[in-house]
Amino acid sequence: MKPYPRRNDLSREQKIYNYRLCRCRRIVENAFGVLTSRFRIFEKPITTSIDKVDVIVKTSCALHNWLRKTSPASYTPPGFIDEECQRSGLRLGTWRQNASGGPFENITSQNNRNSTREAIRIRDNYCHYFNNDGAVPWQDSAIF
Fold first, then answer.
1. Distance (Å, rounded) from C-alpha 94 to C-alpha 17?
2. Where is the DDE Tnp4 domain (predicted)?
3. Segment-wise mean pLDDT, segments of 10 residues, the chain, 144 residues
4. Closest by Cα among 15, 8, 7 to 142
5. Of 15, 19, 58, 68, which is the most exposed, with the fewest CB atoms less than 10 Å away?
6. Hey, what long-range contacts does 127-131 have (CB within 8 A, 24 or more apart)?
7. What are phi and psi of 46, to 5 degrees?
8. What is the predicted pLDDT for the residue at 100?
9. Closest CA to 17 of 25, 33, 118
10. How far apart are CA 111 and CA 80, in angstroms?
11. DSSP per-residue codes, 19-31
């Protein structure tokens, strides 16, 4: 998913979509960064079938959740995971200090920056959802 371009000319709804997309990306980045910092299998491309990759990811998530519940002080000590703070914004977790780019480190940017009509339609649908049924109480204060 891509954000709406032209930051100064965006409608309130488009700004909210961009905020929600950015927040979602941070959460996913944090989740996979933590998994990569704890499970070596994610440090390089996984060369197996898609079905096995699916099992590996799900098993890693289940093990991660179990370790967080049973051994929080040693598995995810305070400050290890990114945290959102109302006063200071985002506080980056210490997992980032030892993080390499992993399998995504050498991905190059594609020259084609144009979105397809289908991608634009999907983005507009999410924009509508985030501003209606999927709205959260803090999103307006986050964009202004």
1. 28
2. 4-65
3. 85 93 88 89 91 95 94 90 75 79 53 77 95 92 82
4. 15
5. 58
6. 127/4, 127/13, 127/14, 127/16, 127/17, 128/13, 130/13, 130/16, 130/17, 130/20, 131/12, 131/13, 131/16, 131/17
7. -90, 115
8. 63
9. 25
10. 36
11. HHHHHHHHHHHHH
Looking up tokens 């780019």, which residue turns up?
101
Please say whether the beta carbons of 130 and 11 come within 8 A.
Answer: no
Q: Nearest Cα to 90, choosing from 18, 27, 33?
A: 27
Burial classification of residue 43, based on how many CB atoms lie within 10 Å of its CB (0-12 exposed, 13-18 middle, 19 or more buried): middle
**Could you tell me if 62 and 38 are in contact, meaning their C-beta atoms sit under 8 angstroms apart?**
no
20 CB contacts (<8 Å, ≥6 apart)?
126, 130, 139
